[in-house]
Design brief:
The protein is of the alpha+beta class and about 500 residues long. The chain is built from 21 helices and 11 strands. The strands form 4 sheets. Strands 1-2-7-4 form a 4-stranded mixed beta sheet, with helices on both faces. The chain has a 3-stranded antiparallel beta sheet with strand order 3-11-8. The protein binds protoporphyrin IX containing FE.
Amino acid sequence: MFTVLLLSLVAIIFIYQSYKYVFHRPAGFPPGPPRLPFFGSYLFLLLVNYKYLHKAALSLSKWYKSDIIGLYVGKFRVAVVHNGEGVREILNNQSYDGRPGLFLSKMRDPGDCVRGIFFQEGLLWKEQRRFILRYLRDFGFGRRFDQLEMVINEEITDMIDLIRSGPRYEHEHLLVKPGGYRIQLPMFFNPFSANSHFSIVYNERIPRAEMGKLVKLVNLGIQFQRNADDYGRLLSIMPWIRHIWPETSGYNKLNESNLYIYKYFAEFVDRHIDSYDECCERNFLDLYITEMKKGLPKEYGFNREQFIMGLIDFSFPAFTAIGVQLSLIVQYLMLYPEVAKRIQREIDEVVGSGRLPTLEDRQKMPYTEATIRENLRIETLVPSDVPHKALEDTELMGYHIPKDTIVLPSLYAMHLDKRMWKDPENFRPERFLDDDGKLCLKKDVSLPFGAGKRLCAGETFARNMLFLMTTAMLQSFDYTLAPGDSLPDLAKNHNGLIISPPDFWVQLKER
Ligand code: HEM
């Protein structure tokens, strides 16, 4: 009898604890799906839309009739926000400027201690971001700078030559088919965008003949972007599954990318440290080494490992994100040939055919600029933003957000919100023009680069590159379909850390 009573009591306690685990939420936490053992609510996201988790979160938001939902991803508490007001509040309130310690961020660093910029927070993040941005500016990053524009011009000239003449070196076969005029996306633009960025950072450019390692870097960079997701995949919930399913969990691919990228930049850094001469400042890297030698407090993070990771974070989007966004632009130019024609008319009027477009031309080409902005809105490259984290207990949209909650401002939902855009599903560059056809920045309330203190550090560089490369291509070429090709299918685009088109070869025709 006593045993039966005891077992019943244990069973009741077990059922009560399980119930509490599944349905309990901190007081005032936003509504959302229940929490399953191990997975939390991540499984529900996968069930709703395993391919696009940002769309799954938006569907749940509609289901719960709330623009903010609360989830558990494994042990992590998460709040996802789906309206413009909430997104802006997260981005502009410094209480949300933390970054969660997801396994994805830890596994990038061989020392297993999170460094760099993207996944850093606090004093170290502030000091490193401030220092890098302050001194990269001297070399043209984030502003108009003739010398840099000349370098970009030369890179674009090389790129166009590669299209016309076809591959000259082994590694170029990954970018262009023999005979030329057929390019691989989303790889193609990245080595040239990376090289433009490297000229800012190292004052060096890698010649076409020696781009083999750079092309591999681009390839593995895109592999990393594609093999993660908004929450760091199941790996952030159960990091141990990498030992059981290293391939299916994405671990092998992420790890392969991490190791190669780290080695690539460590070699650069070590070469500069070894040949450093305090009497001769060669580039930005030397400025950083000088700072390392000052013996600043440890918390500022001026050491070799942080140097490598900071450099990776400031370069990674230059050799992945820019080329991917350009490829998304190409998809739309192919789907909307009338838009491409109108940009070409603008190029013909403002630039002509005797020289490449420059940033000086940009102000005079409002339709082109509006098209790029519309693409950044409708194909939000980073749909859930880079995850933020609450640094203290806060209130958000009337809900209680406890310290350490991961906070995701859904840029995707904001960019496709009918309440803000009336016809968000239509690709319509004109939405950013006034009645006289001039660019009206007030109408562009999209935030593809985030906002606030965590604003994308490369926004100006990225916008400049998108303009220069899009116009240089359309000045010389039409995007066409070769026999057997079909128009891009946007539903096939990959969702990873960023959205990216599946690998495809595009046919170009001389205009
Ligand atoms: C089309 C291209 C790009 C897009 C759409 C983009 C978008 C973004 C977004 C949404 C964030 C997260 C902001 C936040 O945390 O709220 C971000 C962060 C960042 N981006 Fe970009 N980015 C692009 C290109 C670049 C480039 C070219 C660079 C540098 C060369 C760059 C460097 C960074 C860095 C360092 C951060 C981390 C900022 C921090 O955590 O403080 N990005 N970017």
